[in-house]
Design goal:
Layout lengths: L2 E4 L7 H16 L4 E4 L6 H8 L3 E4 L10 E4 L6 H9 L3 E4 L3 H15 L3 E5 L5 H7 L7 E3 L13 E6 L5 H11 L5 E4 L5 H15 L3 E5 L5 H13 L2 E5 L15 E6 L5 H10 L1
Parallel strand pairs: 1-12, 2-3, 2-4, 4-5, 6-7, 6-8, 8-9, 10-11, 10-12
Helix pairs in contact: 4-5, 7-8
The structure holds FE3-S4 cluster.
Length: about 280
């Protein structure tokens, strides 16, 4: 008999759940096309479902007419985009996660107070691009210790984190930054949902012969979960749907752990559990 454990933290986080509810509500109430600035969620199956409900993904505002309805996803966007939407009289459905909004507000406030903003995170991640847009794109974005010497020239520094980065990366970089003799304000803006999910995945991976991570191939938090699990378990697979499971992996396996990224819908997780 194989023991199967599903992580309690698997699936939508608070911010994604909130964004999906806002979009579902808009689909019910609005008869014209609804546009999302980038995919609402890093999950192909959900994107296909929304596409059939006349929800279209755009990359920039030149792709929509004046007076359209545009959803800002949980990652948030730069301040300039709100201004552009105002000029086009766009009906904004703002699903920016409140935790991301908090980072944007810190960056905006401390930039205005004359601090150099440091974002610890991935410069290509939409959340980081959006946050940088709250300090006129002037932030230094760091994702390893090697970039640190260049910040020595600033008198006042404000450090924030991309909400989904690994805690140890943040603390390692912050300890390096603190060696600079300048005024430093540090805001650990890592979302606790991410930490809890990563911690549970770690424990589950330690105690499982096979670990399954369910989530979009483009989802950075799902990829990070997979990385973490690989440190503690020899057999880790990252899948988008149950159909990708090759049952050969369960040979001689007594325990299977399952976790899922923040953008993985409950019905996909359920199918995976059933197949296992
Ligand atoms: Fe928000 Fe945390 Fe999710 S920042 S979008 S609740 S991972």
């Amino acid at each position: 008999m194989r023991n199967v454990t599903l992580a309690k933290t698997a699936g939508f986080c608070f911010g994604v759940d909130r964004a999906i509810k806002k979009l579902d509500n808009a689909v019910k109430c609005i008869n014209s096309p609804i546009y999302t600035l980038g995919p609402i969620i890093h999950n192909n199956q959900m994107i296909q479902k929304y596409d059939s409900q006349n929800v279209k993904i755009i990359n920039d505002l030149s792709q929509v007419e004046n007076n359209s309805t545009v959803v800002i996803r949980s990652h948030g966007v730069a301040k300039s985009l709100y201004d552009q939407m105002g000029q086009k009289n766009i009906n904004i459905i703002d699903a920016t996660c409140p935790y991301v909004k908090k980072v944007q507000n810190i960056v905006n406030e401390y930039c205005m107070k004359g601090y150099k903003i440091i974002i610890i995170g991935d410069e290509n991640h939409p959340e980081v691009i959006g946050v940088n847009g709250w300090c006129n794109n002037s932030a230094i974005i760091i994702n390893n210790k090697n970039n640190i010497p260049i910040i020595k020239m600033y008198d006042k520094i404000c450090v924030v984190a991309q909400t989904t980065i690994i805690e140890s990366l943040f603390s390692d970089i912050v300890s390096e930054i603190q060696k600079c003799h300048c005024e430093i304000k540090v805001f650990n803006t890592i979302c606790s949902a991410t930490e809890e999910r990563q911690e549970e995945a770690k424990l589950l991976a330690k105690n499982s012969d096979v670990m399954i991570v369910v989530g979009g191939y483009d989802s950075s938090n799902t990829k990070k979960l997979t990385e973490i699990c690989k440190v503690y378990c020899d057999k880790v697979i990252h899948i988008e749907t149950a159909s990708e499971i090759d049952t050969k992996i369960f040979k001689d396996c007594k325990s299977v752990g399952i976790t899922a990224g923040a953008s993985t819908p409950a019905w996909i997780i359920k199918e995976v559990v059933q197949k296992v």
